[in-house]
Design a protein that fits this description.
Elements (H helix, E strand, L loop, with lengths): L9 H13 L4 E9 L1 H8 L7 H15 L5 E4 L5 E4 L4 E10 L2 E10 L6 H13 L6 H10 L3 H13 L1 H8 L2 E4 L17 E8 L4 E9 L5 H25 L4 H5 L1
Parallel strand pairs: 4-6, 6-7
Antiparallel strand pairs: 1-8, 2-3, 4-5, 7-8
Helix pairs in contact: 2-8, 3-4, 3-8, 6-7
Length: about 250
Amino acid sequence: MRGKAKNISLPRRLICDLMRASMDVPFVSLSRSLNVRPLLEARAGALAPAGWAAMFVKAFALIARDEPILRTVYAKWPRPTLYELPRSVALVAVARVEDGEECVMPQRIAAPEAMALAAVDAEIRRAKTAPFNDVPMFRKIMRATRLPLPLRRLSWAIGLNFGRQRGNWFGSFAVSSVAAYGGGELHPITPGPFIVSYGVVEPDQTIHVVIRWDHRVTDGAPIARVLTRLEQVLNTEIAAELRAGPKSIRAVGG
């Protein structure tokens, strides 16, 4: 049987490079269903509620503000070390269609813990809908992806192996989900050190969350505590910010 060869597009080349960079990361994962009833009630009363990705980004960053380990990356150069970043940098996986091809691009959000939830949400929505070349992160990534293979490998090595550059290029944590396309437990991989994924809201008002992390950075017990704290932050700080925003007509009228 004979098929046909197809060129690898730039967005697909990016994924190939990303998977290569993730191969050596010793990932482990922990999953749990979180009860988000207070958050759902607050979200139902909001006029323009933030998306789930934005809520998870800000909630995780708020926790990381008080938990330095969640802002720590593993760096190899000039010697193997753990490097603590001064603030969180989130990478959000954004699904798009470019030139008729479905692809995933990362949107960078620096210090989301210091941003309004609406601003975090606006950054993610802009990455989904704005023209491709109007998104600075996409332009930066595509410039690197167009490089010849040896230069591309060098740029990735620099970005991965120096602590400061790793924070700039790959962030301190990532958020990815396929909940918009139905249920299912996603276990994505990334160069690390942390990636959060979530499912659909279940009838019992829970949502399943998976955290994968670089085992060189931390262990399971701290991540178990992070999941407990994540449930608390979603139902308190994030819910409170939603309640403080404009209310829907139905909520105001009862």
